[in-house]
Amino acid sequence: MTGRKLSAFIDAIVSGRRPARFSATPDDVEVLRMAIALSAERPGGAKPDEQFVSGLYEELKAQASARADPGFHPIRMTGSVARPIRMSRGRFAIAAVAAGLVLVAGTASTTEAFNHGTAAPTAVPAPHGKVLLTGTFESADHRVVGQIVAYPSRPSWVYMNVDVAHYSGRLVCMLQSDNGSTVAVGTFAVRDGIGEFSRAIPTEVGRLRGARLLTPTGSVIGSATFA
Amino acid sequence: MFRATQPSKRSEDQHPVRRDSDGAHLRLVDDDIYTDWESVYRDNVERLYRLMYAKVGNRPDAEDLTSEVFRTAFGPLRLASSKGEVRAYLLVTARTVLASHWRQRLGLAVTSIDPVSDLAYLAEPSAPDQPSSAPQRAGTILAALPERFRRILELRFLEACSIKEAAQAMDVSVSNAKVLQHRALQMAAKLAQDLGQ
Q1: Pairwise CB contact (< 8 Å): B78 & A92
Q2: Interface contact flag, B182 A12, Cβ < 8 Å
Q3: Rounded distance between C-alpha atoms, residue A82 and residue A93, angstroms
Q4: How close, in Å, is residue B172 to chain A by CA atoms?
Q5: pLDDT (tens digit, 9 = 90+) per residue, B149-160?
């Protein structure tokens, strides 16, 4: 069964169609990777279609206009978890909120607004220079399970979103500083694998080196190193 | 918020000083700063698409993933970040988007984005005409394969033949062509690993 689905997947790639999903085995991965590498080197394939480029531009422009509308509130609150209300697809919604907040959030009042859902965040310019730290949470088997961004301000912030398959429950976030110490910055809920968390931190962002996500029993879900 | 109402003129008209919409202050704008989302989009859409296409090997998925990265990264921000910061952020976002794509599509990560080596996709100069060593690598691998293995991969992946067309060209049955293709891909993958790719 897997062989037929693997073959169908490769057929789709060769013919430029969207491949169907299936449960691949580790043995399939190297074959698929090579098929993708060869297909990607076909002359002309790596140039985006002009209609796609212009269509996406119009979509983003509409999104930007919607955000510029004073009546538009980019997030609403459901318990302690922020959700975007205007997203065409849901699976990266939390990351979208993260992306926005990372670059707009920067004040304690915004923190409170976010945590209590009383107002949309206030926009401020993104920081310049190498002051915004980003990291990717990876599991022990090197799967990407989330992102974290540390934003220097008064106070500084961390924001993270996670996407951990088959996990529901609470996670603890630990920050690691350059002197080797670690400190728990808080816990947050993950539902059906999805969760996010923001918190003002007393630590100087420039001294942060990484972060870890742990279950309440101490199992490490993911680790990130700041870049 | 996005500076959506201000036209993107940076690439054509480099103003050394920009006046904010509220007139509150002036700030210098240099060549390495993005001042609006249109500039970010126009400067990076082809780069991101090219990166995603290299990671998924087909246009529909590459378009979806490219769109997802921009939707995700373009929050309600007022952008005044350096190109390097923005591209690093786009790359981190792309990494997460791609990882989620593979987990949902196949349950395993077939390809991934390396924040260091893949940053070259977003670096200057842009473009499909950007010099690339990829065809040379593919050529090296294909050249090292036995003739029939090389031929089936050339027919399928470089000439975009259907499996039936490839079978006819090689004068074998469709079933044999599928077996040949699978074994050729396995050997090519092993060669790529041996070559450190």
Answers
A1: no
A2: no
A3: 10
A4: 17
A5: 999 999 998 888
